[in-house]
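Chapter review: from sequence to fold.
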Amino acid sequence: MKKKKRRKLKAKLQQLKKAYRTARKARKAQEKRLVKARKQENKALKTYEALLQKLQPTPPMPEDEAAPSPSGPPNDPLATDNLREIPGLGAKFEQLLHRAGITTFAQLYAMQQDEWEIIFAQAGTRYRNFDPTPWQEEAARLANLSQ
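The token string follows.
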């Protein structure tokens, strides 16, 4: 009787060892995936922060060093335009542009591609391949800028 009980216990122990090894392998694989995901997340965060730094408005220059405006009236820091007058530019993009410091048609017209990429990244993946050229052309027209 003792031998039978001993064999059952040995078989149960073997099953438990096998289950433990399987669980340990699964945990190690999951930890590797987690480390990889964290690395990707950190890389994406660094890229996002670098692009966000480019988009941050530069601090105003002191008046004695200020460069003259290329053409048109002097830049009024309080002046804003209703960016939603541009066809296709809705409340979501207006809010993202305002957050980026873009409040006038002239500023929108002067935006560079990397600035647009940041705005589109904030808007979501749906806008990844969106072309802002029509918006910029309309902004130039509304601001009475020559192209």
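Two observations follow directly from the output. The radius of gyration is 29 Å. The chain has two domains: 1-56, 80-142.
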